[in-house]
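Why do we care about 3D structure at all? Because function follows from shape, and shape follows, mostly, from sequence. That is the central idea of this module. The next example makes it concrete: a single protein chain, its amino acid sequence, and then its structure expressed as tokens.
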Amino acid sequence: MNYTYILECKDGTFYTGWTNNLEKRLKDHNEGKGAKYTKARRPVTLVYQECYETKQEAMRREYEIKQFSRKEKLNLIETNRVSG
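And the structure:
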């Protein structure tokens, strides 16, 4: 499976990405190996995820979510929050 996900950073900002191994990617982000953006904003918490069959679908959705306003992202997260 391929995943599009949103992380909430320590400073309250959001990071959107995609991966085919969500558990490893989250670990990488929290170890400072995930992305420049999250490296200085650790720890990060997974707050939203979607599953897709193909990499292309996940990447397309990542791009779409990145165009959302903060308010739209908050609405998406709040209506579909990942429990954990």
